Amino acid sequence: MNLDRVNARTVHAALALAVRAPSVHNTQPWRWRFRDGTLHLYADRARWLTATDPEGRDLLLSCGAVLHHLRVALAALGWAATVHRLPTPVEPDHLAVVEPHRRPDLAGTGTQMTAAIVRRRTDRRSFVDRAVPATLLNQLGEVAAAEQARLVTVTDPADRAELADVIARAELLQERNLDIWYETARWSGKRPGTSDGVPAANVPTEQRYGDVALRRFTTGALAQPQTAILEGDGATLAVLTTASDSRLSRLRAGEALSAVLLAATDAGLASCPLSQAVEIVDTRRLLRQRLLPREAAVPQLILRLGWPAWVPEGSLPIPPTPRRAVEDVLDGASAEPCGTDSTGMERS
Length: 348
Prior knowledge:
- GO terms for molecular function: oxidoreductase activity.
- With about 350 residues, this protein is an alpha+beta fold.
- It folds into two domains: about 10-120 and about 325-330, NADH Oxidase (3-Layer(aba) Sandwich); about 120-305, NADH Oxidase.
- About 35% of the residues lie in helices and about 20% in strands.
- The strands form four sheets. It has a five-stranded mixed β-sheet. It has a four-stranded antiparallel β-sheet with strand order 5-10-12-11, sandwiched between helices. Strands 6-7 form a two-stranded parallel ribbon.
- A hairpin with an 8-residue loop joins β3 (about 80-85) and β4 (about 95-100).
């Protein structure tokens, strides 16, 4: 009996949190395998948005986000994780091997971040017209740096205008592409009872705020809080970057995305990833030329960050987007071992 080997019960508990990670169009393009006490992360190419994301950037960022969510969940359960990224060069979809190590001293230390996993939503509504403090933005930058990425906040009005123009260009180019239009329609406007995609209940009827356009989904039924309508949008824009554009850098950018979103949620901020401008080669090049000319940085994603609008008591919050069950994304841990305690260790 190996008391230091993670078991199926702990794996299920950790993945139940991990699968809440954000993903492009809520496609959840990942699969997990559990064998010999280790977890293996694979890209699920059946869920790859080949028109919207021809380079697979969004797919790798999504998988990086679920990988970081798993690390957070394991730590809260008392397990440290050694991660081997891109372990099999001849098998490009094998993205990571996670080796959990029993660390009782970690148990309960990540409760804030696991609570943030449960509370986090992609908030596509308008934010309150109130600036995010520079100290908080710097803290989010430190969180990104710990995951080998950089968060470049865009606070200069001229830089923001440049960024808004690039986002608008990307939106226009994608709207002219029928394959992207059909792909977006397939994954949005979903009705209750589905396990993936973007439901209409999570999309506002208004999808443009001042100078910034959001991706246009087919159907929107989410009402704007009255305070946001009266005050206008106060979102801060930030660009998540990496030093290179390798597959490893994209995966690490996804981990950084997860870390930043959870830290922002824990601080009370709302957030919304914007990926259109990095999905197109020309607009991604413009981002580098106009906003990052003096930096050896590759833009991986844009984030809207801000204070959520006050919602009157009794109003419905943003509902969670649907998720596939752990059993649908995991192979090799279908049964719970006999004789386990709440920490996932085997009992003698």
